[in-house]
Amino acid sequence: KMTQQMRDLQLAQARKPPGPSSPNAAKRLYRNLSGKFRVNYTSFDEGSLVGRGEKEKLRKSYLFQSNAALFEAVELQDLDRVQELLKQYSPEELDLNTPNSEGLLPLDIAIMTNNAPIARALLQAGAKESPHFVSLESRSLHLSTLVREAEQRVNELMAQVVNEAPNADCSEKEKQLKAWEWRFRLYKRMKAGFEHARVPDAPSSVHLSVASSSSLQVTFWEPLSVNSAVVTKYKVEWSCSPTFLPPLGEAVIDKLKDLHFTIQGLVSGTAYHVRVSAYNMKGWGPPQASEPPFAIPSNWREYDGRAPRRRGQAEALDNLLGQVKTVHQHCICHEPCKNQPQSRKHSVSKSLKHLFHPGSKFLKTLKRGLYLTAIFYKDDNILVTHEDQIPVVEIDDTYSCLLMQDFLWFTKVSCMWDEILWLRQCVTVSQSSCSCILQTRFKMLLAISQMQGLLGIQDLGQVFFEPVKDKQGNILIVTLKEVKTNQTFESVRWVPICKLQTSRKSVSSPEEPTALDMLLISMQDKLAYHQRSSHALSPGLYLGYLKLCSAVDQIRVLVPERLPNILCHVKIRSNRNISREEWEWLQKMASMEEPVPREPEADTSQNPLFQELQVAIKELMTLVNIPLQEAKDFRLYSQEVLDFGDQVSFLLLLPPSDDVCTAPGQNNPYTPRSGFLTLPLQIFELGEEM
């Protein structure tokens, strides 16, 4: 039915004499088609189409209609419909930059009718001006031609309507007359808009900052004037001379979603002047000089010639690992030590037999011991065994060693899931002492291999930052991994988390919950932690707060719940680079008795970094619930800037030396409000690396 409607519509249009419809008719057609355009063309009755060519023809016809609808919406100044079409279709599907029969693009109509909101929407979608308008004269001539031809057509139709007797053809000509009168007024309005327009004012502000030792970042804002035509592009120029003679380079920016530009390939230590000018259909406006008027590409490392902390470390570790593998490449798994206690020998033999026996399977219940469980999730579903149990395998049923040491070792192993077989061989060969620690770690590797084999998955994910323990003596080490694609597995299946939690409640004792019960109860919290720990910060420079607290067997670090892989922090600015001049100022501040800036002095009040740090310190003190007057005793870490990749850098704010790490039993009067965690330091370091 829909196909027939489209064909009937095309036939009806073919019978009509050439010329646009009337404004009211255009609106009715545009509104009627709007509903049809929202229907995906694949929902048509494809059974009635003959062959792929027919489908492609219908698709092209459908996209042609959407292009026509965009022109109609721009001409009728319907901003909502323009935004809807831009959201629904790609620029290619809309033929956004293909001129119509009059040689106009949607952006041309928007800017010449001075419809700034529609023009901005089109520009952000990637719209361009017509390539036919190579000069002011060509645009003026084109508009004059459109007005003249429209006026001529109006006069012709008016004469025909006046001279002909009333009939059906006369009624049709009256409709055409109204349509051409409307188009004549549109072209006149476009011509008047062009004639009355003037070149744009200079950008309202241009900010210049040092992006690296070879680049500068320019950020600018559109002109404040509302009387000139819409700005469609900007030009960034740079030179070593304040007169810009000679100019060193320029760049034209016509993608206006973000008004910034990075000048690359500059010489470190050389001063560059920058200015920006705006363009509209009348030409280029006056330039606006940057603030500050010039900048020198540099980086804080140039202050003392320091090399990056991690330069070559990854390669060195890879080489070291390769050497160790070469030494152990002929190793095979050996029998456990002869002189170990009988109970431990029996446990290891049992584990080995359980691993390689074809009947190996997941555990249904927990006895007193150490266990490994792997949580794989997708949306609100997790993987369970065919008995609707979370996958659990035994590590050690007689565990009595130091849990935290073994747990932290396990978290390091999680960085090498693909190397478990090789690690087992190495641990087997090296357990000449047959110590409790080596035996436990060998069993951990066996359990990992067993879990990988039963699931058919090598990567078990990220280790949760603390084991789950119950009063019965069970300990669960939990790994978490999000599955992005729809995968099927032989030994496990997907079930909703809520269903698993409901069924578990019916068979468990609320008075003495087991470690599995506790895991299910806190499942959403653990999944949320895992998802948040993989989030990345947006590019920029941050101020971090380093706060530690010590316990008997570990040191923990304060982190925000919303981003537990990063220290408590606030953003200083979007530019991550610290220039040499800024670092020199920070070194000067660090040598003062009051290392944290409070009140501006004459030589620092104009320093942008000083002002940015003042704002950031106040915000950070509020975040971690520390009175602002206490900040006078805090210090900025002045040994280095912490670089995390190529996008994020950190300055550290440290409490007084006596308060950096809170000792066991020591009262901290300024406890952060809710929304914070304390992670074991080694877990935090692994999370930051990952």
Automatic annotation (TrEMBL):
Coiled coil spans: none
Example of a GO cellular component annotation carried by this entry: spindle
Pfam families linked to this entry: fn3
Region (Disordered): 1-25
InterPro entries attached to this UniProt entry: ANKFN1, Ankyrin_rpt-contain_sf, FN3_dom, FN3_sf, Ig-like_fold
GO biological process, one term: regulation of establishment of bipolar cell polarity
Source species, domain of life: Eukaryota
Annotated Fibronectin type-III domain residues: 202-299
Protein name, entry field: ANKF1 protein
